[in-house]
Design a protein that fits this description.
By secondary structure, the chain is α/β, with parallel strands linked by helices. It is built from 11 helices and 21 strands. The protein starts with 9 loop residues before the first strand and ends in a 31-residue tail after the last strand.
Length: 446
C-alpha cells in the first residue's frame, strides 16, 4: 500500500486570498488553473479553508455568534448560498467530484470541537447512542473563534462525533483535512481522537494539524504518530519578518521530517492575494522577488509542504513560473533529508544529507559574497554544480561561491563524479577525446 504523504503535499488553499468567504466559483476557477498550468509539477491539493458552513461569511475576519449550516446530526454542511452544488444535502461531493475530474485532490478545513449550535439543540451523534449535549468541554475553547466548544474525550460520544464527522468527509470524497486549533495549545487527546477517526475512515485522507504558535519539538513523536503534517508557526503573511523567523524553526524541526510526517512552515503568500483576507488589502505579494525565491528555496530544501494562497488566475506569469520551476521543486521532492550545516551571523547554508542539494542564504540587509569550502558544508567537491533558479551549469572550484543580494538565496544541485567508463578502441585516424557536452548518459540529466 502506498504510504500517504510519502512526499510533502503540494497544493492550494483559499485562506490568504478569500479568508472565510470563498465561494464555489472561486474554488473551481483555481482548481481549473492548477490542472492546466501546475499539476504537471506536482501541485495537486485544492483546500477550502475555514467557515465554509457560514452563510454570512465576510471579508476581514470571523463572524462571532454566527448561525452555522448544520445537518440534523450537528455536522457542518457547506452554505448553499456560497456553494450552490451542495444544495439538497449533497454536501461537498459535487465539488469534490469536479476537482477529482481534473486529476486533483480535494481538501477541507475543520475546527477542533463540536458546534455550540449542535450542543444547544442537543442533536444526536450519527451512528451512536449519544447526543451533542453530552460531549462539550466548555473550558477548552478557541481564543479566536466561537463556533465550537471543545470536546470532553472522557465521554465516548466525543470519539463518536469525530468518527461521524470524518465519515461524512470520506463520503464526500475528501482527500485532505486541515484540522485547526489543535496544537496551540497542544490538545493531545483531541489530536489522538481525530487521528483515530481518520484512521478508521473508509478512505485515504491526509491529516494536517494547525496552528503552530510556540509548538515544542517535545511533541514531535506524538505528531509523527498522529498526523501527516503539522504547522510549526503562527499564520505567515507576505512580510520578511515572517519568512525570516522560519529559519530557526525549520532548523529545529528538520530532524523530524520524513515520509508520512512533515513539519509545515505554512502557506506561500505569493501572487494575487488579500482580496477578502484577514490581513491586508487586495494586493500582489509584498515580498520582493529575492524574498520570494528565498522563501521557496528554504521551504524546498527543508522539505516543507507547499500550499500557495493566491488567486491563481489573477496572478502574474512570473509568480506561476516561480512556482513551477522543476529544478527548485526537485529539492522538495528529494528522497533524502536536509539540515542547516553552516551559520555565520545573518548568513546560512543548508545541505541535503546525501550531498545532492545545497542552498545558501543572505538574511541580512546588505549584499554579501560567500566563499564556503565544500568541507564547511559537510560535502565533498562535486563534479558538477547546477544553479536551480537560473538553470545553468557551473564549473565547481574548491569552494561554493555565491553573490547574494539582501534577503536572497541560491539553490544548487550537486553531481558527484561519474564512474570511469571502459576505454573504447579508436578507429584509425580519429581522436579518443570526447566532445559531446550533451551526453545522454551524463549524471546531470534532469
Amino acid at each position: 500500500m502506498t504510504r500517504l504523504a510519502a512526499t510533502p503535499p503540494m497544493g492550494w488553499n483559499s485562506w490568504d486570498v478569500y479568508g472565510t468567504s470563498v465561494t464555489e466559483a472561486e474554488i473551481r476557477a483555481n482548481a481549473a488553473f492548477i490542472a492546466e498550468h501546475m499539476a504537471g509539477h506536482g501541485w495537486e491539493y485544492v483546500v477550502v479553508d475555514i467557515q465554509w458552513y457560514d452563510p454570512a461569511a465576510r471579508a476581514g475576519g470571523y463572524n462571532l455568534g454566527t448561525r452555522l449550516t448544520l445537518d440534523e446530526y450537528g455536522l457542518p454542511q457547506p452554505a448553499p448560498n456560497r456553494f450552490p452544488s451542495s444544495a439538497g444535502g449533497a454536501g461537498f461531493k459535487p465539488l469534490a467530484d469536479y476537482v477529482h475530474s481534473l486529476g486533483l485532490k480535494f481538501g477541507v478545513h475543520i475546527l477542533r470541537g463540536v458546534p455550540r449550535q449542535a450542543v444547544a439543540a442537543n442533536t444526536p451523534i450519527k451512528g451512536s447512542e449519544y447526543s451533542a449535549a453530552q460531549i462539550p468541554d466548555r473550558e477548552r475553547v478557541s481564543s479566536w473563534i466561537d463556533d465550537n466548544w471543545g470536546i470532553d474525550h472522557s465521554h465516548p460520544g466525543g470519539q463518536a462525533y469525530y468518527d461521524a464527522l470524518v465519515r461524512q468527509f470520506a463520503a464526500w470524497g475528501v482527500d485532505y483535512i486541515k484540522a485547526d486549533d489543535m496544537i496551540a495549545p497542544y490538545w493531545e487527546d483531541e489530536v489522538e481522537a481525530f487521528w483515530h477517526a481518520v484512521d478508521r475512515a473508509d478512505r485515504d485522507i491526509v491529516l494536517s494539524l494547525s496552528p503552530g504558535m510556540s509548538l515544542s519539538t517535545e511533541h514531535a513523536q506524538h505528531l509523527q504518530e498522529h498526523s501527516h503534517l503539522w504547522r510549526i508557526s503562527a499564520d505567515l503573511w507576505d512580510r520578511w519578518r515572517d519568512i525570516d523567523a522560519q529559519f530557526d524553526l525549520l532548523r529545529d524541526w528538520a530532524p523530524f521530517a520524513g515520509p508520512g510526517h512533515w513539519p509545515d512552515a505554512d502557506m506561500l503568500p505569493l501572487g494575487r492575494m488579500g482580496l477578502r483576507a484577514e490581513v491586508g488589502e487586495p494586493r500582489q505579494s509584498l515580498l520582493t522577488p529575492d524574498e520570494q525565491r528565498t522563501m521557496l528555496t528554504l521551504w524546498c530544501i527543508a522539505r516543507s509542504p507547499l500550499m500557495v494562497g493566491a488567486d491563481l488566475p489573477g496572478s502574474s506569469a512570473e509568480t506561476i513560473e516561480l512556482l513551477t520551476n522543476p529544478e527548485v521543486l526537485s529539492a522538495q521532492r528529494h528522497s533524502a533529508g536536509a539540515k542547516e550545516v553552516w551559520r555565520e551571523g545573518r548568513h546560512v547554508a543548508w545541505a541535503s544529507t546525501d550531498g545532492a542539494f545545497a542552498a545558501v542564504f543572505n538574511r541580512g540587509p546588505e549584499a554579501a559574497e560567500l566563499h564556503l569550502p565544500w568541507s564547511a558544508l559537510g560535502l565533498n567537491r562535486p563534479e558538477r554544480v547546477r544553479d536551480c533558479w537560473y538553470r545553468s551549469d557551473i564549473v565547481p572550484g574548491d569552494q561554493l561561491r555565491a553573490k547574494l543580494q539582501p534577503h536572497s538565496a541560491a539553490l544548487f544541485r550537486l553531481s558527484l563524479a561519474a564512474p570511469a567508463r571502459p576505454a573504447r578502441p579508436c578507429k584509425r585516424g580519429t581522436s579518443s577525446t570526447g566532445v559531446n557536452s550533451a551526453d545522454s548518459n551524463s549524471p546531470w540529466n534532469l
